[in-house]
Amino acid sequence: MTEYDHEPIRGLPGDLPAGERIIWQGAPDRRLFVRSALFGRWVGGYFALLTLLALTQGSLLGAAATAVAGMVLIGLLNLFAFLVARTTVYTLTNRRIVLRIGVALNKCINLPLSHVGAADLRQLAGDAGDIALTLTGPRRIGYAMLWPHARPFKFGAPQPMLRALPDAQRVAALLARASAAIGPIERADQPMTSASAGLQEAAA
Fold first, then answer.
1. Is the pTM higher than 0.85?
2. Over the stretch 38-91, which tens digit does the pLDDT of each residue have?
């Protein structure tokens, strides 16, 4: 038995109201999450550089200790990414986006599509990417509550983010169509990449 066994529908805190239907469900890809959200390549490169520096200075013990520390840290990042991928469910319905997140403390965050003012797609590789959501209205969600499912460094106005999606382009198109049925998604003033324009086009 797990903490999610009480869910009437996977990833949702309750049954869907009449007229609401699930369009898509997904979760972060572990490898993509390590690379994009936890900066795994940068961390690995940093420790590799420190190891080489120790070797050039003739410190075999220091090089070995640095390499081991780097491998331990990379292992911890991969473990955390595995737990995030295992416990996260992103759900898109014709009315809202639901984020079931939390490794240690489970929580569900409901984001009505009518409160999504912009959606920015950041491509990672191929069709993979992140989708950041700009929310409208007075209600805000704390950055700490969202992390790591938050756009980096947006502390003043936190933006929920669907992280490390292997099929991000398809999800972006589905989100655009679902939102267009309620109200058009407007492009953000400072999009993460030019790919965010595709959300507007897909809604047409």
1. no
2. 999 999 999 999 999 999 988 899 899 999 999 999 999 999 999 999 999 999
- The model's confidence at residue 192, banded by pLDDT at 50, 70 and 90, is very low
Fold classification of 89-203 is PH-domain like (2.30.29)
Do 8 and 15 contact (CB within 8 A), yes or no? Answer: yes
Give the contacts of 6 (CB within 8 A, at least 6 positions apart): none
Nearest to 158 by CA among 194, 125, 109, 114: 109
Cα gap 60→58, rounded to integer Å: 6
Report d(CA 89, CA 141) in Å as an integer.
Answer: 18
The residues, ordered by sequence, that sit 6+ positions from 118 with a Cβ below 8 Å of its Cβ are: 133, 134, 185, 186, 187, 188, 196
